[in-house]
Write a structure and sequence with these properties.
The chain is of the alpha+beta class. It is built from 4 helices and 9 strands. The chain is 35% helix and 31% strand. Strands 1, 2, 3, 4, 5, 6, 7, 8 and 9 form a 9-stranded antiparallel beta sheet that branches.
Length: 171
């Protein structure tokens, strides 16, 4: 009670009258609380729907497994040795890991129908012979540029639009 009187006195000094204090002190009406509840419920449902609509299929079953590089396109420019050392494994959840002849790497793979997207490639950074380093660079560029894929006769082909990037065979 003493605290309430002191607060009223401070408010009166700051320009509030007793009537203004009583107006501010009133509890919220039940209709206002219901309105806020409906707004919160609506925002929650809208968030759930937006997550469901933006959901991409993680990885389709035919992609799951280990793949070995056979060649880059155009094949006349593919002069890399040791291509069979460049492998990667796609798991059900989309995590992708592999070995590029010298360094290991990890990335995330997402698919939606025939489109494919690889996330940022994280790799160990051992310094190797230039032949391996060039192969690794080309491989990383291929993954980052891939937008479409096809699988025919256990061969995975990555495309950037209509341009073929690389071919892999299932191991």
């Amino acid at each position: 009670m003493i605290l309430q009187k002191a607060l009223m006195h401070l408010n009166h000094i700051n320009g509030f009258t007793t009537n203004q204090y009583e107006k501010v002190k009133k509890p919220l009406k039940m209709t206002t609380i219901k309105s806020y509840s409906y707004i919160v419920l609506f925002l929650f449902c809208a968030t759930l729907v937006s997550f469901e609509c933006s959901h991409e299929e993680t990885v389709v079953k035919p992609l799951v497994g280990k793949w070995v590089l056979t060649h880059f396109y155009p094949t006349r420019n593919d002069t890399f040795k040791f291509k069979e050392l460049a492998t990667f494994q796609i798991e059900n959840a989309g995590m992708t890991s592999g070995f590029l002849g010298c360094n290991k790497f990890r990335t995330e793979c997402k698919t939606n129908q025939d489109s494919i997207h690889f996330g940022s490639v994280l790799s160990s950074r051992k310094f190797c012979e230039m032949e391996y380093m060039d192969l690794e660079d080309k491989f990383k560029i291929t993954l980052s540029n891939a937008t479409i894929y096809t699988i025919q006769d256990n061969t995975l082909i990555l495309f950037n639009g209509k341009t073929k990037l690389a071919a892999f065979r299932r191991q």
